[in-house]
Amino acid sequence: MLAYIIQRVVQSVVVLLLVGLVAFSMFRFVGDPIDNMLGQERTGADIERLRGQLGLDQPFPVQYYKFLEGAVQGNFGVSYRQGRPVSEIIAERAPATLELAAVSGVLAIAFGIALGVFTAIRRNGIASHVIMATSLIGVSLPTFLIGILLIYLFAVELGWLPSFGRGEVVDLGWWTTGFLTASGLKALILPAITLGLYQMTLIMRLVRSEMLEVLRQDYIRFARARGLRDRSVYFRHALKNTMVPVITVVGLQLGAIIAFAIITETVFQWPGVGLLFINAIQFVDIPVMAAYLMLISVMFVGINLIVDLLYYFIDPRLRVDRGAAAK
Q: What residues does 176 pair with on adjacent strands?
């Protein structure tokens, strides 16, 4: 077990280094931040002086090494646009994104699993067919279009919910939350639905497919022959075995929720790190872009590592296979 954990951690570190290298390399082609930081009357001496202050006159390996050295210590440099530490800026924006991702993830997992089980058990019912047909909307339509449609219906036509912003938030010192105010909760509804709809439909269809496959197995027929109740057969035997492959996909989708928050935050002008990244691209704010991509990579790799470990504990076949290979 310990060897398996060490192996996965080493692989995760290698992936993070490669992702950081690729991302940091791409930033050399997005533009020159000096053009946005100096006015039209800049001179060659001003350009060289600013390059020296930002460290842009150093070779690429030296810049990347210094970035990694600072990132390990939680120091991502100073924003070219705002002139403030990047870690401080991200700390201000992170609560908005994390709350949005958390609510979207809970909605996607809860409704995805529940609707997937329901449509599998009642696969020939009218309600099941309606749900499956409706789920095509979440799979087919792009996220930004879903957000625009929701804004038009619930904000413009009905006037029930706000169309942008985070609403009123409460400052808890190191965290700002909208969960404690009515306007904050109302502002969270449309972005959360927009962000979690695709993941919910994907989880639902996967759970339904796996559930139907499990219900055809011989041990399910044997359980029915023993006279077990349908609830016991569905939720104690079938659902438990259905969740083994679903956990992997759910873990990936949780990471995707944070990554895809860029689109949702742009549509709803949600003050999170996704919108911060979009603004950083426009102003070629390399420290902010690098910090954002590294943090997203850490979340993706961390979630995948946790999923792999959970998969190892849930599926006994992995333990048997590794034990046999060791012998």
A: 171
